[in-house]
Write a structure and sequence with these properties.
The chain is α+β, with helices and mostly antiparallel strands. Helix content is about 25%, strand content about 30%. It has five helices and nine strands, in the order αββαββαββαβββα. The chain has a three-stranded antiparallel β-sheet, covered by helices on one side. Strand 3 (about 45-50) and strand 4 (about 50-55) form a beta hairpin. Helix 1 crosses helix 3 (about 55-65). The radius of gyration is 20 Å and the shape is elongated.
Length: about 160
């Protein structure tokens, strides 16, 4: 899908982040939004030239042109139904992974901090350029969290990670 094709067929509402088909005035994926309340993991899609397309990608292309092959459109607030342009940004795969949510099995409440049962200690780690870097193994949970946060700053990824309290 090209910028020209999208702009020819759709209007965009900046306030809500929705695409509106010019020919029918119909808002794309309104029905899906209701279904997605239960499944926040799903991207909103719509039919475009007999193919399924993601709304967030169409919104980005509409306003900025083609998406380079090595980049992805990321939802800054991690809500995949929030397709306001102000909530979208282009990231490479590595940076996009920092904005991913925590695994369901995470019990520490902090990304990159886990309890290492074998030693009965907390462990802090961070992934950088495809490598997993072990930062610290300590009996102090607070020290492990601090080590992870310092590493996020050191490696320049702190701004990509949703903040936890």
């Amino acid at each position: 899908m090209t910028q020209e094709q999208i702009n020819e067929e759709f209007n965009y509402c900046a306030e809500t982040g929705t695409l509106i088909r010019k020919s029918s005035g119909r808002t794309m994926a309104e029905k899906q939004k209701v279904n997605n309340e239960r499944e926040k993991n799903r991207y909103l899609t719509f039919s475009f030239h007999q193919k399924t397309a993601h709304i967030h990608r169409a919104v980005w292309i509409m306003h900025n042109g083609e998406i380079p092959a090595d980049l992805s459109v990321d939802h800054i607030n991690r809500n995949r139904t929030d397709n306001r342009l102000s909530n979208l940004r282009l990231l490479n795969t590595s940076d996009n992974n920092y904005n991913a949510g925590m695994y369901k099995s995470n019990t520490s409440g902090h990304k990159g901090v886990s309890f290492y049962k074998k030693e009965s200690k907390w462990q802090a780690q961070i992934g950088v350029n495809g490598r997993n870097i072990k930062l610290l193994t300590t009996s102090s949970f607070k020290k492990a969290v601090r080590a992870r946060k310092e590493a996020e700053l050191f490696y320049g990824v702190a701004h990509l990670i949703p903040q936890t309290t």
